[in-house]
Amino acid sequence: MSLLDLLRPHWQNHDPKVRLASIKKLDDMSVLVKLAQHDQSKEVRNEALNHINDDSLLEQIVLHNNFHETALNALKKIKHQDIIFLISVNAKELAIRNAAIELIENEIFLAEILKSCDCLSTCLSATERITDIDLLKEVHVHNGHNPQITLAINDRIKQLTKDKLKKL
After folding, report:
1. pLDDT tens sequence across 40-67
2. Measured between alpha carbons, how far is 161 from 165 in angstroms, rounded to an integer?
3. How many CA atoms lie within 13 A of 15 on its CB side?
4. Burial of 107 (0-12, 13-18, 19+ CB in 10 A)
5. Other CB atoms closer than 10 Å to residue 112's CB: what's the count?
6. In CA terms, which of 102, 125, 151, 166 is 20 to 30 Å from 111?
């Protein structure tokens, strides 16, 4: 243990085991967020994340995290669909955006993503999650920028229509 470790808070100790143990005593959310975002130890990041339940703080962790797995774990903890929607639009990493889309249950949010997205895989993922034919038709009218997306929307409408007719 260095002299510096004696002088600084335990959550700043060079030893990950000491930092991990210190998390149980922490009640400063800004410190927990900092640990979840930047600590080099996966165990410390996960333990800090376990103590954070505020959706806006979890959103910060998802959007400003260099550790993909930690960002995904934080994303899975978010309860509010509007925050997940914002992440699906604002995340820099495509895998995070697509993971957020998989968590969105509100089809209106999915339609908004589809109307504004410029990434083919993101648009295709949103298209597959929409089950409301009228909503897809509305999106289809607003989408003229990518023929692949237009084709995917048409195919989805056909599939849903076919499934609906089978049920009759």
Report:
1. 999 999 999 999 999 999 999 999 998 9
2. 6
3. 10
4. middle
5. 17
6. 166
Residue closest to 89 by CA, chosen among 79, 98, 77: 98
SS3 assignment, position 80: coil
Distances (CA, A) of 34 to 2, 24, 38, 79: 23, 15, 6, 21
pLDDT tens across 123-166, in order? Answer: 899 999 999 999 999 988 776 667 888 899 999 999 999 999 99
Helix (H, G, I), strand (E, B) or coil at 132: coil
What phi and psi values does residue 122 have, to the nearest 5 degrees?
A: -65, -45
Distance CA 91, CA 85 (A): 10
